[in-house]
Design brief:
Layout: H1 7-15, H2 20-30, H3 39-48, H4 58-72, H5 78-87, H6 94-104, H7 108-111, H8 123-130, E1 136-138, H9 145-153, E2 166-168, H10 180-201, H11 210-237, H12 246-250, H13 266-277, H14 295-308, H15 313-319, H16 325-341
Parallel strand pairs: 1-2
C-alpha cells in the first residue's frame, strides 16, 4: 500500500523526532491495521522524499537535554522531559530522550524515586479559565472542604447533571493527573526546604523572627511559583500512556462556562460556608508580617535585591540540582537588605 496519502502525517511525526518504527505504528493505527506500513517502508519513503527521520542531530539533542536538566534537576523522566522540551519548541522521540538522559545524567533514575505531596490553591481562576467541572474527585483530606462546598453550590450550572457534583475516594483510587502532586513536591518544594533546614541547623536563620519569615516567604514563594509553572507546563505537554497528551485532551476546556460573578472569592466563599453549614474553616495564617513602613522603603529594598539577583529562576535551577549555595546566599542578602531599609 502506498504511503503517499499519509505524507503529511509522516512529515509531522518526523519533525517531532519520532523513529521509523514509531511512525510505522502510528500509521498502522490510522489505517485500521492495514498492510504496507512497515518500519522499512517508512524509512524508504522518507529517504525518497528527503525527510530526516532523526529530528534534531544527536549532539543538539544532548545539548537541549543538558540545558533542561540544569533547569529542572535530575527528577524528570523521559516523558516529562519530552513535555518540558516540547514547551520550549524542541521535539524528539521519547526513546531518544531516554537514551540521552541515561548517557549524560546517569543518577536521574535514582533521584526520580523521591515522592511527596502538595496542594495548590487554584479553584476560582481554573474554573474561570477552563469552565465548570462535571465532577470533582478528591481524597478525604479536610483541605478540600471549601472546594467541595463551592462545587455543590454551583452544581446546577454543570454541563452534565447525571453525576454527583463531587466524589471522595481513597488515595489509592487517584486519577492519573493526581500523580502531579508528588512530582511538584520532589521537583519544586523539597530543594528549597532542604536548603532552609540547613540554614536553620547552622543557626543562620531565626524562624521566630517575623522579618526573617517574611523574607523566606517572599523569595521561596516566587521560586516555587517558577518551579510549579515548569512542572505543570511539562505535565500538560507530556504523553500519558493509554490516555494521550493533557493539552490535547483538555481542548478548549470544560463545555460549561460560567460568569465570574457566580464564583465567590475566598473570603466570600468562607462566609457562605459558615452561613449555610453553621461551621467555620481554619483561616489562612500569615507567615511573617510586612515590616516596611512605606512603599518607598519596600521598593528601595526590592530594587537593591534585583540589582544583585536579576534572574531568580537561576536560584531554583541550581537548587533542584542540589547546589543550594546561590539560594542560601540570596536569601541572606534579602534579609540583610530588608533590615537596612525598614
Amino acid at each position: 500500500m502506498s504511503l503517499e496519502p499519509y505524507s503529511e502525517i509522516i512529515l509531522e511525526l518526523a519533525k517531532q523526532g519520532l523513529s521509523s518504527s514509531e511512525i510505522s505504528a502510528r500509521i498502522s493505527v490510522e489505517s485500521g491495521g492495514g498492510r504496507g506500513f512497515s518500519d522499512r517502508n517508512v524509512r524508504k519513503y522518507c529517504a525518497d522524499n528527503c525527510v530526516n527521520l532523526r529530528g534534531l542531530p544527536e549532539e543538539h539533542l544532548e545539548l537541549e537535554v543538558a540545558k533542561a536538566i540544569a533547569e529542572t534537576g535530575p527528577t524528570f523522566g523521559r516523558r516529562m522531559m519530552k513535555g518540558y522540551l516540547a514547551v520550549k519548541g524542541v521535539h524528539a522521540a521519547e526513546t531518544r530522550i531516554g537514551s540521552v538522559l541515561r548517557t549524560i545524567h546517569r543518577p536521574y533514575n535514582e533521584a526520580r524515586r523521591q515522592v511527596g505531596y502538595t496542594n495548590s490553591r487554584c479553584l476560582r481562576p481554573t474554573i474561570l479559565a477552563n469552565g465548570m467541572w462535571d465532577q470533582v474527585r478528591v481524597d478525604h483530606g479536610k483541605e478540600f472542604y471549601l472546594t467541595l462546598f463551592i462545587q455543590k453550590l454551583l452544581s446546577p450550572h454543570r454541563y452534565t447533571q447525571e453525576r454527583r457534583p463531587y466524589l471522595q475516594t481513597p488515595s489509592t483510587r487517584n486519577h492519573t493527573v493526581e500523580r502531579i502532586w508528588p512530582e511538584i513536591n520532589s521537583r519544586v518544594n523539597y530543594p528549597p526546604k532542604k536548603a532552609l533546614l540547613q540554614l536553620v541547623d547552622q543557626e543562620l536563620l531565626d524562624m521566630d523572627d517575623s522579618l526573617v519569615k517574611y523574607c523566606v516567604s517572599c523569595l521561596t514563594g516566587q521560586l516555587c511559583q517558577i518551579g510549579v509553572t515548569r512542572v505543570v507546563e511539562s505535565w500538560n505537554a507530556h504523553r500519558i500512556p493509554g490516555k494521550g497528551t493533557p493539552n490535547d485532551l483538555a481542548g478548549s476546556g470544560c463545555p460549561k462556562k460560567i460568569p465570574q460573578e457566580l464564583l465567590p472569592h475566598s473570603a466570600e466563599a468562607a462566609e457562605l460556608y459558615r452561613q449555610q453549614l453553621g461551621s467555620t474553616l481554619t483561616p489562612q495564617s500569615t507567615f511573617g508580617v510586612d515590616p516596611f513602613l512605606t512603599e518607598e522603603d519596600k521598593l528601595m529594598a526590592e530594587n537593591q535585591f534585583a540589582e544583585q539577583y536579576s534572574d531568580i529562576s537561576e536560584l531554583l535551577s541550581r537548587a533542584v540540582n542540589n547546589d543550594f549555595t546561590p539560594y542560601k546566599e540570596a536569601l541572606l542578602f534579602l534579609i540583610t537588605t530588608t533590615r537596612r531599609n525598614v
